[in-house]
């Protein structure tokens, strides 16, 4: 969008929806002093939400929905006191809801669904006196569902409220019994938390109408024979177990006490039954004819349908595309060397170009990396359910003729290892964003994946960077199906020396705390620019042994990457980031925080870490949050509301990822350095 648009100083409404803009609107719009409506939905806008929009004090409607915006929610938007409608749904926004937004007293519509927002449901939502349409569906909110009671019962909601949606989140516990203030509340629900077996449905009086305010008090307990197909009429998320639900008083999602049934006469029922039976018979006959005409030797079926493999029939996960070997051969010029990227534990990796021009990365399982058919299918089923901005997305697969190939999105900027230790390096702001991105991805695997996933091999070469340097975790999944998965015990080597949990050598046990340890080491690498092992370091071959005394004696300036010391970096921020890394890399796993607790410390920075087109961190804000905070205090200080105050449980996860190295060209570099410098037993002794 040209900057000249700022010359339209009398512009009140700007509607550029349903176009193909790729960049956010320019700050030249600040010159439009009377702008009231800014609509740019359904474009291809990438990047973070512009902070300067918070200065458009005359703005009444903001719609940036259905784009590709990412990052945190700007605190500055709390200055939009005249804002009535805000639409930011269907983007890739993450982080907490800023408490600074509690002053949006004129806000009526707040639609933030289909993002990656997280944290507890803030109490300030009940302080929006004019809110009538509040939608936070399909996010990652967590915490006790009882918090909603306070919002509903004690909130200042008016009779104008029409929707209050929190479906498809991860709220815990049973929904409490309470009265909904008005029958116009359509529903709110929690359908992605699989911990609840039943649901409590609260409906209004059958005689109430949409125009008659009334308190809802009837409670229905869902029986075991709950009909999921009825839920699908109201909630659009899958899988969606029956949990808690509130209706508008005219329908009930439970199997009994339905109030929308219409009785039919016997004649009507008979006619309906006969007609329905004839239709079913005709449809079945047509289906049988079509099946018989199909070639029995047809090898490839349409995506998502059942096909006959080596074993039993299997349904391809609906979110994956099934490629033929011929398609992938064409995409890689018959897997030629010019398309070769690298090789990891799973096998060789190639860059491929699909017919539509999309570039992908194709992992080909070697004899050592290949799994049995059942294990491979299990991995596909799991990976197809894992979707997060900071996870490398699985696009599809190929299992023709016993081969096993995985097709991933291609990361233009390579991996963190290349960018951190190569000729060109990341600046301070980019390193912080990478740290937060890794933390978000791990928190998703540990807290929101069902069942939880242990990555097992967090290291710079398994952190990929897209064209915007957004960090994405690679090589997450499940290991071979063995009884070890049920005991959390692994008897085969996992991970990479230097990043491997020291407790593993003592217990042969992997937990989510093992990922936290590796994350801490990566943080120290980001801060110092040093490798985890370096034989040239006189005062500590191991990175933590080098960091701790120098950091204690000389502070952040003694360990900071020299390439950053020549630029504008925030010393206070990197001091505390170092403390996070040291806390996570504690020898005793019980002394380490969870990733959710780490995010509670780092997330407040996410929305301010980068200014628009800025190359460094803003030094104005970084000292505020960490003032008088020491991360070496009790780890429960990190997040008083997370884990409900319970001590950290190191054995709470049950699924591991295979130890592969996706898309990395530097996979064996650290290991080669080890072999050249010293023996493994010495390394183990130093770690332990």
TrEMBL record:
Enzymatic class: transferase
UniProt-annotated binding residues for ATP: 363
The reaction(s) this protein catalyses: L-seryl-[protein] + ATP = O-phospho-L-seryl-[protein] + ADP + H(+); L-threonyl-[protein] + ATP = O-phospho-L-threonyl-[protein] + ADP + H(+)
GO MF term list: ATP binding; protein serine/threonine kinase activity
Keywords: ATP-binding, Glycoprotein, Kinase, Leucine-rich repeat, Membrane, Nucleotide-binding, Receptor, Repeat, Serine/threonine-protein kinase, Signal, Transferase, Transmembrane, Transmembrane helix
Residue ranges occupied by any Protein kinase domain in the UniProt entry: 335-606
Subcellular location: Membrane
EC identifiers of the protein: 2.7.11.1
Signal peptide extent: none
Main location: membrane
Topology in membrane: Single-pass type I membrane protein
GO CC terms, sorted: membrane
Metal-binding recorded as keyword: no
Entries under Gene3D superfamilies matching the protein: Phosphorylase Kinase, domain 1, Ribonuclease Inhibitor, Transferase(Phosphotransferase) domain 1
Organism superkingdom: Eukaryota
Regions that span the bilayer: 269-292
InterPro entries named in the record: Kinase-like_dom_sf, Leu-rich_rpt, LRR_dom_sf, LRR_Rcpt-Like_S/T_Kinase, Prot_kinase_dom, Protein_kinase_ATP_BS, Ser/Thr_kinase_AS
UniProt protein name: non-specific serine/threonine protein kinase
Source organism of this protein record: Ceratodon purpureus (Fire moss)
């Amino acid at each position: 969008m040209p900057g000249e648009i700022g010359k339209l100083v009398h512009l009140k409404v700007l509607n550029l929806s349903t176009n193909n803009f790729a960049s956010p609107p320019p700050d030249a719009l600040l010159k439009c002093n009377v702008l009231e409506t800014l609509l740019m939905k359904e474009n291809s806008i990438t990047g973070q939400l512009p902070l300067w929009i918070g200065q458009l004090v005359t703005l009444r409607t903001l719609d940036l929905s259905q784009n590709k915006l990412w990052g945190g929610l700007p605190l500055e938007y709390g200055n939009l006191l005249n804002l009535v409608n805000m639409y930011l749904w269907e983007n890739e926004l993450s982080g907490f809801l800023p408490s600074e937004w509690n002053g949006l007293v004129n806000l009526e519509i707040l639609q933030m669904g289909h993002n990656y927002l997280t944290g507890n449901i803030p109490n300030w939502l009940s302080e929006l006196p004019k809110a009538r349409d509040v939608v936070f569906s399909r996010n990652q909110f967590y915490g006790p569902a009882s918090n909603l009671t306070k919002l509903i019962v004690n909130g200042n909601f008016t009779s104008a409220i029409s929707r209050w949606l929190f479906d498809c989140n991860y709220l815990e516990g049973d929904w409490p019994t309470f009265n909904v203030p008005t029958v116009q509340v359509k529903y709110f629900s929690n359908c992605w938390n699989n911990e609840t077996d039943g649901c409590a449905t609260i409906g209004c009086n059958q005689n109430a109408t949409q125009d008659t305010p009334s308190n809802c008090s009837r409670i229905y307990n869902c029986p075991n024979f709950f009909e999921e197909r009825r839920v699908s009429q109201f909630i659009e998320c899958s899988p969606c177990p029956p949990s808690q639900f509130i209706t508008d008083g005219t329908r009930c999602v439970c199997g009994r006490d339905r109030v929308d049934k219409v009785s039919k006469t016997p004649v009507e029922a008979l006619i309906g039954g006969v007609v329905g039976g004839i239709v079913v018979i005709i449809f079945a006959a047509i289906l049988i004819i079509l099946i018989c005409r199909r070639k029995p030797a047809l090898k490839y079926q349409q995506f998502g349908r059942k096909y006959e493999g080596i074993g039993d029939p299997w349904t391809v996960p609906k979110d994956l595309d099934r490629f033929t070997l011929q398609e992938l051969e064409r995409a890689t010029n018959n897997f030629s060397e010019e398309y070769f990227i690298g090789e990891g534990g799973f096998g060789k990796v190639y860059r491929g170009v699909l017919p539509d021009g999309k570039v992908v990365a194709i992992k080909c399982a070697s004899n050592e990396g290949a799994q049995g058919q059942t294990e491979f299918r299990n991995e596909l089923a799991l990976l197809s359910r894992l979707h997060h901005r900071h996870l490398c997305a699985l696009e599809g697969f190929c299992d023709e003729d016993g081969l096993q190939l995985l097709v991933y999105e291609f990361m233009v900027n390579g991996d963190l290892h290349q960018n951190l230790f190569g000729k060109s390096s990341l600046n301070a702001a980019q390193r912080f964003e990478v740290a937060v991105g890794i933390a978000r991805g791990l928190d998703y695997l540990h807290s929101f994946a069902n069942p939880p996933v242990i990555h097992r091999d967090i290291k710079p070469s398994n952190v990929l960077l897209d064209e915007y340097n957004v960090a994405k975790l690679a090589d997450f999944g499940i290991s071979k199906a063995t009884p070890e998965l049920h005991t959390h015990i692994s008897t085969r080597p996992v991970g990479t020396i230097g990043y491997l949990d020291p407790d593993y050598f003592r217990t042969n046990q992997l937990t989510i705390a093992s990922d936290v340890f590796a994350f801490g080491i990566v943080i120290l690498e980001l801060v110092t620019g040093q490798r985890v092992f370096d034989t040239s370091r006189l005062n500590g071959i191991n990175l933590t042994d080098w960091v701790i005394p120098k950091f204690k004696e000389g502070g952040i300036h003694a360990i900071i990457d020299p390439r950053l010391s020549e630029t504008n970096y925030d010393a206070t921020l990197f001091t505390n980031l170092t403390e996070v890394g040291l806390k996570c890399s504690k020898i005793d796993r019980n002394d380490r925080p969870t990733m959710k607790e780490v995010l509670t410390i780092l997330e407040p920075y996410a929305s301010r870490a980068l200014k628009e087109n800025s190359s460094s961190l803003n030094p104005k804000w970084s000292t505020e949050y960490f003032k008088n905070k020491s991360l070496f205090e009790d780890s429960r200080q990190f997040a008083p509301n997370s884990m409900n105050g319970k001590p950290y449980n190191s054995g709470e996860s049950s699924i591991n990822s295979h130890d592969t190295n996706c898309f990395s060209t530097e996979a064996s570099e650290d290991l080669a350095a080890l072999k050249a410098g010293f023996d493994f037993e010495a390394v183990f002794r130093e770690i332990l």
